[in-house]
Amino acid sequence: MQFHVTFAGRLASEFSTGLVITPLETSRRFDPLAQALQSSQNLGGRELVWRFDGGDITSDGGALVLQKLEKRDGIVRRFAACFTDYRKADRVEHPLLDLVMQRVFGLALGYEDLNDHDTLRSDLMMAVALSKDDVKGENRRRAQDRGKALAGKSTLNRLELTAPDYEGSPRQKESDKPETKKITVDPESMDALLVDLFLDAHQQAPEQIVLDLDATDDIVYGQQEGRF
């Protein structure tokens, strides 16, 4: 049942305001066709106008803050130095630093899954944060990539799944299949960087460092990698 609300009473000094709720005799429903969308409406003397040609819109404005922080501190650049890129330079569209920065910025913005980058690769703000010259990706080599300035999940995947002992071979070990994952990381360099960044944040190195680790139990099923 629908209701309408009326207020009863005269001046507040004479009567207290009362709230009276009475049922409507007929239901009132919003009719979106009662007024055409292309016509304007007046609200209190102000014109209400709606348009659907706003152009490129993003909700990732925080990427510019990350860009400023990176220019000041160079943390991502130091992190990228822990990787080795064995890809052929003449076939690379996304340099190693761009891949690492895109992944780190995505994590900082709340995009933890690689699948998210199939959408983020078209985000103009992310392209600006990575200082891309062609922020709209209009000049990409392949037609299917045009309009997407950044790397997709398959390219970023090479940062995380390359075998640690890969040495630059064009073929997979014990196979004739071509090796596509050609970006390796040095875990020891990464560990050392984390320590250096921690020490850089202090005027004087502390005598003792306490690591307080809280375990989180996430139930996994099947023979998933990394289970324990």
Textual characterization of the structure:
- The strands form 3 sheets. A two-stranded antiparallel ribbon has the order 1-2. It has a two-stranded antiparallel sheet with strand order 3-4.
- It has 228 residues and is of the alpha+beta class.
- It is extended.
- The protein is 28% helix and 11% strand.
- A hairpin with a 2-residue loop joins strand 3 and strand 4.
- Mean pLDDT is 81; it is low at 1-17.
- The chain has a domain at 62-200.
List the helices and strands and how they pair.
Blueprint: E1 3-8, E2 18-23, E3 41-43, E4 46-48, H1 62-73, H2 75-80, E5 83-85, H3 96-108, H4 117-120, H5 124-129, H6 153-156, H7 158-161, E6 183-185, H8 187-200
Antiparallel strand pairs: 1-2, 3-4, 5-6
> What would you report as the Rg, rounded to the nearest angstrom?
29 Å
Structural class, judged by helices and strands?
A: alpha+beta
Biggest sheet: strands, sense, closure? Answer: 2 strands, antiparallel
Number of helices: 8
* Percent of sequence in beta strands: 5-15%
The residue fraction in helices comes out at 25-40%
- Low-pLDDT ranges: 1-17
How many runs of DSSP E, i.e. beta strands? Answer: 6
What is the CA-CA span between the terminal residues? Answer: 56 Å
Strand order of the largest sheet: 1-2
Order of helices and strands: EEEEHHEHHHHHEH
* Overall average residue pLDDT: 81
Shape: extended
